[in-house]
Amino acid sequence: MTATHPDALAVPADLETPSLVVDLDVLERNLDEMANLCRGHGVELLPHAKTHRVPQIGLLQIARGADGLCVAKLGEAEAFADAGVSRMTVGYPVVGRDKALRARRLAERVDLTLGVDSVDGARSIGEVFAQDGREIKLILIVDSGLGRVGVQPGEAAMATRLINEVPGVRVTGVMTHEGWVYAAPDRADLHARSQAAAALMVGAAESIRADGTPLPTVSLGASASARLAAGMPGVTQIRPGIYAFNDLGQIALGNATTQTCAVRVLATVVSHPDPRRACIDAGSKALSQDGLPAAAHLGRYPGHGLLVGLPGWRIERLSEEHGWLRWHGPGEPTPLRVGQRVQVVPNHVCTVFSSLNEATAVRQGEVEATWTTIGPGASR
Amino acid sequence: MTATHPDALAVPADLETPSLVVDLDVLERNLDEMANLCRGHGVELLPHAKTHRVPQIGLLQIARGADGLCVAKLGEAEAFADAGVSRMTVGYPVVGRDKALRARRLAERVDLTLGVDSVDGARSIGEVFAQDGREIKLILIVDSGLGRVGVQPGEAAMATRLINEVPGVRVTGVMTHEGWVYAAPDRADLHARSQAAAALMVGAAESIRADGTPLPTVSLGASASARLAAGMPGVTQIRPGIYAFNDLGQIALGNATTQTCAVRVLATVVSHPDPRRACIDAGSKALSQDGLPAAAHLGRYPGHGLLVGLPGWRIERLSEEHGWLRWHGPGEPTPLRVGQRVQVVPNHVCTVFSSLNEATAVRQGEVEATWTTIGPGASR
To answer: Is Lyase included in the keywords of this UniProt record (chains A, B) (predicted)?
Structure first.
């Protein structure tokens, strides 16, 4: 890689490695593009902030047109509330009295909606709210095909009815994370999967409305499908996370290019014991162990991220602090130098933020800010 | 799991999940056992503190007989120095002027040794030290078979000679991380691998001494082999990390039992959409994506950790915040309850500490302390 490689971000030469760098110009363009698209379709944009866990980025998303934030856990919601975010959905089955007590305090200062996928879960929350005659908005998690959490679409109406019988809670919408769209091998299939997810969710919402429950929100997630889902009739909200930065997963799916990818992990070659092997100082505690989400594209983007400007070199394996490089190119290996800096487009940006717990924001090669993620307890 | 299951740690009922819990009685027994073993063999114990990255645990290790600490990165060394640790080895190829400047400041207040595996790396460090006529101790990283960093054993003498020609540095020992011992399928093979690693390193040291360089330190790593390596003639230092806590990897290798494993990840069942599937609130941001280090034992311990007291249930897959449980037992699934708490023996304790960045220390079921890991920058 040279400093002028077209896929390299301009960064100060003295940034220590390993570091996560965010280019603010690219980030802002990505935020604007999605906000404009949502405005155009009349759907709400609730970016998933578990991607970055950085209060300043959440505020920037709202300043540039987002309607609030989605988060995974109450710990994240509390930290974003402290930073001034006033509307959030916790897109996770919130369960248990301890969480309910925290949610009740949080609901006093922000417009809060909690994920739910069981009557037992709803009851453990409702108990605390009903005690003071209050009510918390819930959003029913529907399993659109991922097989993780959520009720089946055909059970959505019955689940809503049973949950709404629990004092202290009220179901106001349905949501899904259509993570199975990531398996799409090409654009046409991605389009078809996105349409299918939207149709399932709109159908689930209609079945609930037909059962007599008003249901304003039909919410889809996933940066992979967000742009397509936003245009589908009946969808009222999208919750993409990665779109703000993009990563190799989004590039592989055709949703991004290296030019629209706002992040790089800076690393240094620390060892080069033979011409076909080397190590960089970014291991799983920087890049995370996450593979490419789009497994269908592993053939084109093998390994633990894309080494910018070093075709033939592959990040074949990670230890905690070591990225194991191996030459896979034709002919003789491109020589590396101990001390040489490299840029990596990471496979999955969400887990890089939470591995390094810090990012450096640059604009035109100059540092504008250093951001730290929400501290310990974010996952609770 | 019931509260009285023999493999469960006693923990307060109100700890929020997901949490990493450390039992202090078990931890202290583990520390004492290894310190006594090292004292018995007359070898130094430099526990690898990248395992926990918790200043208080590092101090406890020293209070209970360790001779100093090993760390992976300068960022860790700086934080442990701030906490009062006075002797450390950075067991990583330290490369570059920025690192050298930090190492020079650090060497003013602690007894510091830096890893090296190349003349270029040594030069980038030596330059800064030689400037004021100072000298920094280096330890030569030897590749004993892992194929990651380090010089080959047969090149150790030549590498030492070339590095010692660099002004400002002096090689005082050889070290290896014999990570390949983790592939041992049984105790006999583990013993053979540990002996082989020790023999290689003692041989490399002898070749350096035969070349005329005094070389006090012969250092092996890896909790898997530490107890065996400590007894091998010529080994002067061991650097185990996981031994303090143990984990499923050590249990699989026969180095530990659930009773000597000081850690559990507490989690809550948050979703149970069908009798054969459920989700807990501990995903890769709690348990990490690390598989069992001892791949040879995957058949006995499949998945992302051991669910205490729930045979038949397996943590089959992780998303960032979801642990996907699936029933693999014979017959009908053991029923779970939304809201139920579970304890997980993690595959790899090092990456759990760095995922959650926090641990709760308990003794006889009561919380004694909450520890946080070194903040952002630990990996630099």
So the answer is: yes
